[in-house]
Write a sequence for this structure.
């Protein structure tokens, strides 16, 4: 990805965060993202994000599991190796229920978690630039990207008026790279610099 | 809109003390970041010693065969399968708390769900050991998997409850692990961002998968949690149902009953909650988490215990009634001659006392809120639940249809006991490591409910509580 410049506003209360998000969008600034320590219901809609379709993916994975289990067991018991088990029917559907159910759940769960990790780009040894270390503690962190068209000072003043407790400029890598959090090695050359803390 | 923000004071706050978001982080992360205490080392070393005893016992069993155990002609399942069912049962509380209570929107689950889920995973790992090593030739354990083999391919019997068990337990383990770990990611990121030491930065960095807390990620995370909870709810009920099929689909008197699935599920929740109580009461004290796992959390769990204990009691009585009502003499003999009386009668009455009679004391509110009593009861319940499985398995087997093959009194050998002790070692070794290096309470989830269920918020409701009905209606209407 690439290194971009941001003005970062940090809020410490949902009560100031929601109007701030609303006003930022109204003012025409593009919100890069809002980093929060816990899920805040309604924030995704306030930011104008569309709903996730992860659950649809889950349904498809589940159905894949169901059909796999059903067709496989039917094939084994009727085509590949029909066994006479105490004179019972070769296609005992009720006896298939437990395994069909378990495989449905297994496929749905594993598929959804993998899709979740893929969509969010989460994996062991994935390293990202974080705007503020307290974004996983008690701050709601909202960076706005600085382009030629944006005036950084104006954005800073805007954040201050919106009730931000901390405002600063920061260059950050927007993507991820393979690395560990204990090494200082960066994916890019330029050192990060906080202009005003 | 404002009406929705009102929260009755009849419900006690879920987080005591006037906490801010930062306080929550501090309180839960402090014990993780501190050096292990002496008490922790003592507990950990005892657990590892027990685990080693288990390893030696298993070595004996693998080298010399299952003859090292006292299983005999009719008692082909003894301590091993008793322990399997007991551990699986214990492993039900975690997913119940995190999945079913999530769907029922029970806010109090946030205080205990993380540790309960961890306990579930460790209990299922312990449970899995018993059927695997009971196979005898354990190096052929992979035969239970349906893979294209050179023996035909001769497939496994998909009609067998024992195979259903393989699928149920492995699915349950996988889904519980995914559910637990996906919930853990944001909290690992919290620890990563607080880490000062190099190893901690590296460990929590890798473990948090590069979690940033982005709103889009949270949105997907919420969707994932909800669907996983929806999937886990029938899953948790299916697992013990299938375990009960191991018995119920056979034609052994005392096993061949249709009441087994609900009876086993209730028993599983019963023993699982008891184990959660045992662990939580110690954890909250040692790690100073009384503000997050409050007396009302403990009381709620005791209510579940008294409910499920009563269901189990009903099931015991139904079994006796059905044995009599069926007019099948084998069924009647098992229940009335060999189970409630006979050489194993003591175990039946021990089970009855521990599971049905003593938990009824939890109808008394004072006792539900008494920590020492709750701790004692949680241990009693798990002893009772172990004996329930022992009674079901051994008392149905030791005198079968053919009196000439009636077995002598079944006693475990030291290696059977060692295997059981080893599973305790495994369980507690895992739990000690978890409680030291992982956040035992879901930090993000506590913060999520803090503004609604914290003590400070509850106090804001004081003036509203003081209002008359007319005032309240007038004010909330606008």
């Amino acid at each position: 990805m690439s290194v971009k410049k941001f003005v970062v506003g940090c809020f410490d209360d949902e009560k100031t965060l929601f109007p701030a998000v609303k006003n930022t969008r109204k003012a025409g600034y593009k919100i890069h993202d809002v980093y929060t320590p816990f899920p805040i219901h309604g924030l995704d809609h306030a930011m104008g994000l569309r709903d996730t379709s992860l659950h649809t993916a889950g349904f498809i994975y589940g159905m894949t599991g169901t059909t796999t289990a059903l067709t496989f067991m039917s094939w084994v018991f009727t085509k590949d190796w029909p066994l006479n088990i105490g004179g019972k029917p070769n296609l005992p559907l009720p006896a298939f229920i437990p395994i069909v159910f378990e495989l449905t759940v297994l496929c749905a769960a594993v598929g959804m978690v993998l899709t979740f990790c893929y969509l969010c780009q989460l994996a062991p040894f994935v390293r990202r630039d974080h705007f503020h270390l307290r974004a996983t503690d008690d701050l709601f962190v909202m960076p706005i990207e600085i382009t030629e068209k944006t005036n950084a000072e104006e954005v800073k003043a805007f954040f201050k008026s919106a009730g931000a407790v901390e405002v600063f400029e920061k260059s950050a890598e927007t993507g991820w790279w393979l690395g560990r959090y204990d090494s200082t090695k960066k994916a890019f050359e330029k050192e990060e610099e906080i202009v005003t803390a | 809109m404002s009406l929705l923000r009102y929260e009755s004071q009849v419900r006690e706050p879920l987080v005591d003390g006037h906490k801010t978001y930062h306080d929550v982080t501090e309180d839960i992360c402090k014990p993780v970041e501190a050096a292990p205490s002496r008490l922790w080392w003592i507990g950990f070393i005892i657990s590892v010693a027990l685990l080693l005893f288990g390893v030696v016992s298993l070595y004996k069993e693998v080298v010399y065969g299952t003859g090292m155990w006292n299983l005999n002609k009719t008692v082909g399942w003894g301590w091993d399968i008793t322990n399997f069912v007991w551990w699986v049962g214990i492993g039900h509380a975690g997913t119940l708390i995190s999945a079913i209570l999530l769907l029922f929107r029970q806010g109090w689950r946030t205080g205990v769900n993380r540790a309960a889920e961890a306990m579930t995973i460790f209990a299922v790992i312990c449970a899995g050991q018993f059927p695997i090593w009971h196979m005898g030739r354990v190096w052929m354990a992979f035969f239970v998997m349906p893979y294209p083999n050179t023996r035909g391919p001769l497939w496994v019997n998909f009609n067998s409850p024992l195979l259903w068990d393989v699928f149920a337990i492995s699915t349950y383990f996988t889904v519980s692990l995914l559910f637990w770990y996906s919930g853990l990611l944001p909290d690992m990121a919290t620890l990563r961002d607080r880490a000062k030491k190099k190893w901690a930065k590296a460990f929590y960095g890798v473990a948090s998968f590069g979690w940033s807390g982005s709103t889009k990620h949270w949105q997907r995370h919420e969707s994932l949690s909800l669907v996983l909870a929806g999937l886990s709810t029938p899953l948790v009920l299916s697992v013990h149902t299938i375990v009960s099929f191991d018995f119920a689909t056979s034609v052994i008197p005392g096993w061949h009953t249709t009441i087994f699935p609900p009876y086993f599920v209730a028993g599983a929740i019963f023993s699982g909650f008891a184990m959660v109580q045992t662990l939580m009461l110690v954890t909250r004290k040692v790690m100073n988490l009384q503000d997050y796992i409050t007396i009302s959390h403990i009381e709620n769990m005791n209510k579940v215990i008294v409910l499920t204990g009563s269901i189990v009691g009903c099931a015991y009585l139904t079994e006796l009634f059905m044995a009599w009502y069926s007019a099948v003499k084998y069924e009647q003999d098992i229940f009335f001659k060999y189970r409630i009386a006979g050489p194993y009668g003591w175990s039946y009455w021990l089970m009855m006392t521990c599971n049905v009679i003593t938990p009824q004391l939890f109808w008394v509110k004072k006792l539900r809120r008494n920590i020492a009593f709750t701790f004692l009861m949680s241990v009693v319940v798990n002893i009772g639940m172990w004996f329930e499985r022992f009674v079901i398995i051994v008392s149905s087997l030791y005198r079968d249809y053919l009196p000439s093959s009636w077995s002598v009194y079944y006693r475990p050998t030291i290696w059977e006991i060692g295997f059981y002790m080893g599973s305790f070692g495994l369980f507690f070794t895992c739990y000690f490591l978890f409680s030291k290096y992982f956040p035992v309470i879901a930090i993000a989830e506590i913060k999520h409910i803090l503004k609604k269920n914290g003590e400070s918020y509850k106090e804001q409701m004081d003036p509203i509580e003081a209002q008359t009905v007319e005032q309240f209606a007038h004010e909330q209407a606008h």
About this structure: The CA atoms of residues 25 and 81 of chain A lie 64 Å apart. Confidence is low (pLDDT under 50) at residues 193-197 of chain A. The first strand of chain A starts at residue 3 and ends at 11. The beta strands of chain A are 3-11, 126-128, 140-145, 166-173, 176-178.
